[in-house]
């Protein structure tokens, strides 16, 4: 199972965890596994067909936009990072 | 002058050729015309530092006579060159000439009449920039670092940094940048100090509740370092003022809490070609990166669109550990100083994240998007929406 690390704004949707495991051989499958268990995540990551434009997804520290997007393969030892834009500064 | 010193002078005069200031002036002019490959003459000022500081001949190397034997071989390694030595009146340089001969220099020359006569003839001289005694003391720990040193400190003193917001990130950043001697610090903030700010916004204090943050920041900074000029902009950054405000600054430190300002600033900074040191915090975590126009990605490469407000709560809604913006703000200040001095590897194309609870730093690579609407090939950063109307979270 791949490891998925979540930015703090997303953690409420997975019961507060910083990191969860998910099943799948590519990014789309891994994310679908997550949505099945944590339905709140879908709206924040993939409200429509494609990944949302205010979130960056990394597989092993590489931005998936420059890999194969949702088709990027994910092995059991890989780490997926979900990083939406953060605004807070004050 | 006693007999012995007269004898030394007589001896030196026999040994060391002397040129008048006119001859030196002409020789230097000829050499200048001959171009950089034909530099046969080296001009060495052997006076004390305080004399040098009051003015010296342009292009001269400063080697005080007391350090001549120790430093001259490093300063002038080719002993066949014509080394023209000068002091204030032509005496010390003559004796210095005999020293150079002893050390194997083939052609030392002493300039008769010294710097006094050079100046009297109306020939050009320059006055090096010097620090006051107070500055030498204040910045002594910087002066000891080779990467900063006196020249670097002057660079900082001449630098202009704009802080977007005097809040959680802006407070520590401005405080330390002021301490470091960044000569001009601009602060744009239209907010007033609120009690709930004081848990992290260390530029302000209890007595200043209700004052404009920009004014409070200026008071704190001026009390810390009188070298720093603080320019306050008590207004909100918007389409009408952003270009005018950022125009005068070298680096922009982004400490805003909202998306409209971040997009607005991103596009304006691209147009004006100014680096933005970006930081943000959330509860126990923070992140920062440097957006250097056209060298790395811009904010829109990373996030082409802002999230809807319900997915991006501000500090006011989400909370933040008070020290967290301190850490991220100081990392931003560090990146700012690196950019100003041109040292180290700035966080261009790298996102550094800090997780306070885990005690972990990590780094992600960021890429420039060739299709980016703001900095890509056919980009028009002046035409893009800033989502001011889109975001429900008010721009503060």
Describe the structure.
The complex is a heterodimer of chains A (90) and B (396). Chain A has helices at residues 27-37, 40-45; strands at residues 2-6, 19-22, 55-59, 62-63, 79-84. In chain A, strands 2-1-5-3-4 form a five-stranded mixed sheet. By secondary structure, chain A is α+β, with helices and mostly antiparallel strands. Chain A has a single domain (2-84), classed as Ubiquitin-like (UB roll) (Roll), CATH 3.10.20.30. The model of chain A has no long low-confidence stretch (mean pLDDT 90). In chain A, a hairpin with a 2-residue loop joins strand 3 (55-59) and strand 4. With 396 residues, chain B is an alpha/beta fold. Chain B contains 16 helices and 13 strands. In chain B, strand 12 and strand 13 form a beta hairpin. In chain B, helix 1 (3-15) crosses helix 5 (92-102) and helix 10 (170-179) crosses helix 16 (323-341). Classes of the chains: A alpha+beta (90), B alpha/beta (396). Chain A binds chain B through residues 7-9, 18, 44, 52-56, 58, 61-63, 65-66, 81, 83-90, and chain B through 165, 167-170, 197, 201, 254-259, 262, 279-285, 287, 302-307, 311-316, 318, 320, 325, 351, 355, 358, 363-367, 369, 393, 396.
Which properties best describe this structure?
heterodimer, A: 90 residues, alpha+beta, Ubiquitin-like (UB roll), five-stranded mixed beta sheet, 5 strands, globular, B: 396 residues, alpha/beta, Oxidized Rhodanese, domain 1, 2 domains, eight-stranded mixed beta sheet, 16 helices, disordered C terminus
